[in-house]
Write a structure and sequence with these properties.
Structural class: mainly alpha
Order of helices and strands: HHHHHHH
Number of strands: 0
Shape: elongated
Distance between the termini: 52 Å
Helix content: 55-70%
Number of helices: 7
Oligomer: single chain
Length: 164
């Protein structure tokens, strides 16, 4: 990547920035064996000049105020933004967005429920509870449940280094 600093500028760029003699010299060096009057050099040079004259824009910067000048333009702008939003949020994108929360909920419910089932002091409470009072997993409340009951750590951290 550093070597790109030593490459010559593009002849098209040089011509567009009114450095035509340098562009002609580059064409002559690489395509005409140093001869600026070579037919191939002249052909390439004149093609680029003609193409740039045909496509030259007097105002190259876009004025974005035109998007909101009139009521119709604002409506079109809102429609384009809405269609882009709907296109991005349809199908797999929504599933992928919510899949993280669903997978976190499933992981949490598996680890917490297995830890609760392994605790012998809770076995009698679980058996005595009515079936409709048992905790049922609910995907809609995954965020709240993860906030109130964070998953237990099962791996050592830097804070556990001082513990035996």
């Amino acid at each position: 990547m550093v070597l790109i600093l030593f490459f010559p500028e593009s002849p098209r760029w040089l011509i567009a920035h009114d450095r035509r003699e340098e562009a002609l010299a580059i064409f002559a060096k690489y395509h005409g064996d140093g001869d600026e009057q070579s037919p191939i050099v002249q052909l390439q040079y004149h093609e680029i000049v003609e193409q740039l004259n045909l496509t030259r824009n007097e105002n190259p910067w876009w004025d974005f105020r035109e998007l909101a000048n009139t009521r119709g333009n604002r409506y079109r702008l809102y429609m384009v933004i809405g269609m882009a939003f709907i296109g991005q949020w349809s199908g797999n994108n929504v599933v992928n967005y919510f899949m993280v929360w669903c997978s976190l909920f499933v992981f949490h419910s598996l680890t917490v429920n297995s830890a609760r089932n392994d605790d012998p002091s809770r076995h009698h409470q679980h058996k005595q509870a009515a079936p409709n009072q048992r905790h049922q997993p609910n995907l809609l409340h995954a965020r709240r449940r993860l906030r109130r009951h964070p998953p237990r750590q099962t791996w050592p951290t830097s804070n556990d280094a001082h513990r035996p």
